[in-house]
Amino acid sequence: MMRNLMGAIVLASGVIASATGAVAADKIPVVATFSILGDFVTKVGGDRIALRTIVGPEGDAHVYQPTPKDAADIAKARIVFANGLGFEGWMERLVAASGYKGPIVVATAGVKALKAEAEEHEHGKTEQKDAKEGHDAHGGDDPHAWQSVANAKLYVANVKTGLCQADIAGCPDYTKNAAAYTAELNALETEIKTRIAQVPETGRKVITSHDAFGYFADAYGVTFLAPTGVSTESEASAKDVAKLIDQIRAEKVKAVFVENVTDTRLVEQIARETGAKIGGTLYSDALSKTDGPAASYAAMMRHNLTLLSAAMLGS
Ligand code: ZN
Question: What is the rounded CA–CA span in Å between residue 87 and residue 91?
C-alpha cells in the first residue's frame, strides 16, 4: 500500500521548501480524495497535518472532474490517501498529471472487498453493468467499504500507518489519536448493532437510489435494494425500475431513501408508484457541510441509522 516512501519524503521536503506559503511550514501537507476519508485523516492527523480534501462535502467522487488546483495540491503533498476499490476512477490520471511520486495509501487495504453484484442479481437479473472506466478495471469491487464501522477501523489503522511513515516524529500523536478514535468507532458499532436488532428481521428492507450500502447490509443484516449499481455513473434501465417496483410491492417494502450524492427523481417516482414513504436523505458517499446532519463520519452513520430504523419500524 505504500509506494516509493523514501523517495517521496526526499521529494516532498524539496517541494515544501519552495512552496508559496499555502501550507504552513510546520504542518505536514496531506491530501485525501473525498470527505469521509478526509474525516478519518483529520481524526488521526490532528493538528500536525494540513489536509486538503479533493472531493468535498456533498460531492460525488464517482463522477468527479479533477481541476489544476487538485494536481497542484497533490504535487505539494507529503502523503496522499485514497479509497481504492475503483472508487476514484480519475485518480491515476490526476496523480500522473501532478508529477507526484510520493506515497499513495490505499485506505481500504486489508478490507474484505464485496463484489458489486449485490442483492438484485439474486432476483434473476443477469444484465452486466455498463463497462464504465474505473469499475471493471478493479474486478467489479464495491468501493463503499466505509459503510461498515469494522472497515472504518481498518481505514483508521491504515491512515495511522501511513502518517507514521511519512512523519516519524508525529507517530506517538497519530497512534494516540487513532486509539482514541477507534474507541469511539467501537461505541458507534455497538450502537448500530443494538438499534438494528430492535427491528424485526422481516422488516429490515429499504430502497436507496444507488447501491452504496452493501457493506452496511453485510455487517448489520439490512437488505438494500437499488435501481442503479455501485456507481452513480450508471443509469437504471426502465426494465430494472419496473422489476424493482414489482419487488417493492411483493415484499411490502415500506421506505425508500434518497441520497445526498444522487438525483432524487428516480426514487421519488418509485415512491409515487408504490406508495412507499420517502424516509429522508441518507449520506452515502460524502459528508454534509459542517452545519448539516452528517458533518463527520460518526454523525453520518448515526444520521443514517436514525432514518433507517425509524423507516423500518414504520414510525
Ligand atoms: Zn457511491
Answer: 9
pLDDT at 314: 79
Q: How far is the CA of 88 from the centre of ligand 1 (A)?
A: 10
117/259 Cα distance (integer angstroms) = 20
Reply yes or no on whether the pLDDT at 187 is more than 90.
yes
Q: How far apart are CA 193 and CA 49, in angstroms?
A: 33
Q: What residues have their beta carbon closer than 5 A to ion ligand 1? A: 212, 285
Q: Which three cell numbers stand for residue 139?
A: 474486478
Which residue shows C-alpha cell 524539496?
14
Ligand 1 centroid distance, CA of 295 (Å) = 18
Q: What is the pLDDT of residue 57?
A: 97
Q: How confident is residue 136, by pLDDT bands cut at 50, 70 and 90?
A: very low
pLDDT at 81 over 50: yes
CA of 7 to the centre of ligand 1 (A): 33
Alpha helices for 167-279 (secondary structure H): 171-197, 214-220, 238-251, 265-274
In the numeric block, which cell numbers belong to residue 150? 469494522
CA of 163 to the centre of ligand 1 (A): 26
- Span 268-300, pLDDT tens digits: 888 899 988 889 999 999 999 999 999 999 999
CA of 242 to the centre of ligand 1 (A): 22
Q: How far is the CA of 182 from the centre of ligand 1 (A)?
A: 24
For residue 82, the 8-state DSSP code is E
Q: Distance, CA 261 to ligand 1 centroid (Å)?
A: 8
Q: How far is CA 144 from CA 118, 127, 152, 202, in A?
A: 12, 22, 11, 25
